[in-house]
Amino acid sequence: MTGRLVLVSTPIGNLGDLSPRAVEALKTCALICCEDTRHSGKLLSHAGISGVRLAVADEHRETARVDEVLGLLAAGNDVAVITDAGTPGISDPGMRLVAAVVEAGHPVTAVPGPAALVMAIVVSGFDTTRFVFEGFLPRSGRERADRITEMVTERRTVVLYEAPHRVARTMADLAAACDGERRVALARELTKLHEEVWRGTLAAAVDHTEQVAPRGEYVVVLEGAAAPADASDEQILAALRRAMGGGADRRSAIATVMAATGASKRRVYDLALTIPRSADE
Ligand code: SAM
Fold it and tell me: Which is it for strands 31-34 and 131-136: parallel, antiparallel or unpaired?
């Protein structure tokens, strides 16, 4: 019988969040893949687990670990994956091992538990029915600018991970790109002694993060963009022409303009039909 790859979520700060199922999975597997053996060794000794082999599968060595993991699974042993904190595969190693194990046809399961993004969004006070997780933003350049531009019209709540020394810069960039009145929650040190959720507008977040040097771990939760005020027919037509002039076909132009203006499909579609088709469409 084949073994299972088990992704085990570990605490994001509070050791009390290590679940009994997590302890059981870590105790009974043949190998625990982790990012840092010293860091994970402390967690295991806190949980009273000894005698299980730890192997490094950090972002540089995850792929190199695949053959060994597949061998253990084929021989009927379970292999666990943990990271320094939270859920493996979420801005952490895990994804490549899962893909390789799925490809090889072995079962993959998880012991769910802490994930900073989930806790941050549920405590933010913003809409949780639909949201986008952006992970860490690129630090600079075109890719960062493009990702921020996408957030300007993003109607769903956006969740970002950010290093403390970069929070102020990210607030400044978001405030410059989006409406400064858009609301943001800065969820800091979740589950830890100094847990704090600061809530306010982007403009106020710029002042706040400039005044108080951010320390500890942060999740940024940005409220989705408000539906734009009713666009006029002329504005919708101009947006459609811009999208179609930029090379989009009629269908994608309609989708882009609906997202940007909040106008109904029927209305944008009817207006799109009044624009003569180009010869090559
Ligand atoms: N796999 C982890 C998870 O499930 O949340 C995320 C790992 S990622 C390398 C680390 C980032 O997660 C931090 O930079 C921070 O943005 C966020 N984070 C982790 N723990 C946190 C905490 N206790 N409070 C706030 N943010 C946290």
Answer: unpaired
Written as one letter, the residue type at 47 is A
Question: In degrees, to the nearest 5, what angle opens at C-alpha 158 toward C-alphas 266 and 19?
Answer: 125
The answer to whether residue 227 is domain-embedded is no
What pLDDT, on the 0 to 100 scale, is given for residue 170? 97
Q: Answer whether 157's CB lies under 8 Å from 126's CB.
A: yes
Which of 217, 220, 221 to probe ligand 1 with, by most ligand atoms within 8 A of CB? 217
pLDDT of residue 280: 46
| 115 CA closest ligand 1 atom index | 4
How many domains does the chain divide into?
A: 3
The atom of ligand 1 lying closest to the CA of 86 is: 4
Domain with 38, as residue range(s), is 5-114
Same domain, 23 and 107: yes
Please identify, among 114, 145, 166, the residue that sits at the C-terminal boundary of a domain: 114
Secondary structure (3-state) at 138: coil
Is 76 found in the same domain as 147?
Answer: no
Gap from CA of 85 to ligand 1 centroid (Å): 7
Residue 234: what pLDDT?
Answer: 92
The residue whose CB lies within 8 Å of the most ligand 1 atoms, and thus the one to mutate among 191, 218, 222, is 218
Ligand 1 binding pocket, CB closer than 6 Å: 12-13, 83, 85-87, 90-92, 115-117, 161-163, 187-192, 217-219
The verdict on 167 and 123 lying in the same domain is: yes
68 and 144 belong to one structural domain: no
Give mean pLDDT in consecutive 10-residue pieces for the chain, a chain of 281 residues. 97 98 98 98 97 97 98 98 98 98 98 98 98 96 92 94 96 90 97 97 96 91 87 89 81 82 90 79 52
CA dihedral 110, 114, 120, 122 (to 10 degrees): 70
> How far apart are alpha carbons 98 and 33 in whole angstroms?
12
Say whether both 9 and 103 belong to one domain.
Answer: yes
User: What is the whole-number distance in angstroms between the Cα of residue 116 and the centre of ligand 1?
Assistant: 5
